[in-house]
Specification:
28% of the residues lie in helices and 18% in strands. It has a 4-stranded mixed sheet. A hairpin with a 5-residue loop joins strand 1 and strand 2. The radius of gyration is 14 Å and the shape is globular. The protein starts with a strand and ends with a helix.
Length: 109
């Protein structure tokens, strides 16, 4: 489990599964849906349980990320947003642009 910080200061929680193939391994970024979190891809967590470890077993490096205002990234947010009921267009744009840029930086580092 790690965290990354976006350009606008949001701290995102993620889980990284390194590949046995090392630095040249293909990387898979697994994203959740609205109101979800990164745990849907981990062992024992529902419909997609075990998907991230299975990808790792096939020599992929895997990153599961809680996008802003989801999962563990809710601490300190306004109640309406923390329940994902009032996400704005700006929030969605930041998820696509800034959140994914921070994840990309994490992968290359």
């Amino acid at each position: 489990k790690s965290t990354v910080t976006t350009k606008d200061g949001a701290v995102l929680h993620l889980t990284y599964y390194p590949s046995a193939a090392g630095k040249n391994a293909p990387v898979v970024i697994l994203l959740h849906g609205k109101g979800g979190n990164r745990l849907v891809w981990q062992a024992g967590s529902g419909q997609y349980q075990g998907f991230a470890p299975a990808m790792q077993a096939n020599e992929f490096a895997v990153v599961n990320v809680d996008l802003r205002l989801h999962g563990e990234n809710l601490a300190g947010e306004a109640t309406a947003k923390s329940k994902n009921t009032n996400l704005t267009a700006r929030d969605h744009q930041a998820m696509v642009a800034m959140d994914m840029e921070a994840v990309k930086r994490f992968i290359f580092e």
